[in-house]
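Notebook B, p. 112. Complex prediction, attempt 2.
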Amino acid sequence: MQQIINFVIRNKTFLLFLVLFSLSLILTIQSHSYHRSKFINSANSITGGIYGSINSFSQYFRLRDDNHRLLDENRLLRDKLYNRSTRGDSVVVDSFNTDGTYKFITASVYKNSYSATNNYLTINKGESDGIQEDFGVLTSKGIVGIIDNTSDSYARVMSILNSKSRINAQLKNSNHIGSLIWDGKSPHKVQLVDVSKFAPVNVGDTIITGGQSSIFPKGILIGEIASYESDVSGDTYNIEIDLFNDMTDLGYVYIVKNRDKEEIELLDKTTNE
Amino acid sequence: MNNILSTSVIRFIILVLVQVLICSNINFLGYINPYIYIIFILLFPLKNNRLLLLISSFLIGLTIDVFLDSGGVHAAACVTAAYARPVILKYAFGMLYEHQNIRFGNAELGSLIGYVSIFTIIHHIVLFSLEVFNIFNILVILQKALFSSIFTIILSVLIIIIFSRNSK
């Protein structure tokens, strides 16, 4: 016993180092598994408050860009609105579904990162605004990510620029689906994998969200095909996508809530059993 | 003693704020950020014991992690670098460290740069290995570590020289 105590006292620095290092390792590993990084995240009142107070200054410098973005979006919406009757009802890809399935909430981005391997955003809406986990986040130009952690008045968004992110997406001109991942290299490019070899893939084609997940409405823009190649197995395509959204410059975002989500999930659960 | 404590606390707060609000948003060439908050560990008082150094390093790393949503990578990197600090100090300053009377502000520039460089490189390699968390991307890890290290070393040395001269 005496010897054990002596050993601990003699090596107390090393032991403390080991304890602290393994604690950080546990936190790191935990942050790599989806939905388990509850403990260390920026959606809390202290970090949210500090980011918020800085944001209240810096938003004045973005007013010009924000106005342009709003004008662009209004133009787009007007285009859609006034051309509706002439376009017919065949393939109207309308992100703003009129039957009330989706509810949109606006939020301001307090923190954005895009240089790490796992990127997150912090936004200024939380549970008190009705935000919950697994709501989709998008801008007028395309998708941004999925809410993965909420506090009372802040929420953390897992960006599509995150190695854990898997989002259902499809080609605009056919219904071939794939999953959207990020290889961690460029913040302007994402990858669409597991696309069937039968899909008509051309450089420049548009990629939109698929209707298979209950998070995003079908038809939200993502990007266009930059290049593609066959997978090593030869059965599927790996497609490189240029994002429409500039992920390095996000001011305001929309959070989309699917009112039918619980019903869809319940249905899935009962059929799986 | 009280003076040292308050200096450390103020330094902690200022460095964390500067780091998360300014330095982590630079993204030079898309991904290069300096991590200047390690100045806190670099300048931690020499006479204090190593346990306190380890705990403070862990705390500042964890604070940065909370702000940047990075899990525990900064904490791990800080603890490792802090554990290696006495060895680096001995290597960089030699005899001066034995006598425990280094003043970082007016130390020889070569020794200071050596100390900051070795410390930064150790910190950054641990940081990016854990952040990328994939041994197959070893080139990405080394690339990120190298470029960020250069940025951090230059900024840290400048900040240490400028601010230490003033407070003398």
